[in-house]
Amino acid sequence: MLAYLIIFIPLLLSSFTINDPAGKSNESVTRRYKLSEFENAWHRGSNVMYVIHDKKVEINNNRIEASLELKNNKENLYSVLVNDTYLDLSSDFVKTILITYDNGLTFEYLVPYNNHYLALENKNKCIIYIIGSDGFTYVCNC
Predict the structure, then answer these.
(1) Are strands 63-72 and 137-141 parallel, antiparallel or unpaired?
(2) What is the residue-wise DSSP string for 52-84?
(3) pLDDT tens track for 12-51
């Protein structure tokens, strides 16, 4: 799989500025895309982003312990269970999915989409935080 990293600069809701290293010259690196163009490209990719900012992010204290259940070993697909009930992982319910590794030193954000499973490449010593639209943070220890 080809990995491709861009620098995303959200300035407007209708369009996005992206610093794209595939530009053929310094002048062509900065590109502007319509929201629909960006969404189409995003949904064709692996949907992983890294967020870099200078503000402290606070995760609310309304935490609920959850667990993972393997659904498909070949594709590393997992469901999230809360008290024997499957958690809705679709973009209708989930605001953010954050996975930390190495005691929080390494992390990645997953963008929720219309899927009811998490695809986890590396399930070793991770903690998954799923921030729901109900105001709760669901926490899974891997």
Answers:
(1) parallel
(2) --SSPP---S-EEEEEEEEEETTTTEEEEEETT
(3) 556 667 777 777 887 877 777 776 777 777 666 666 666 6
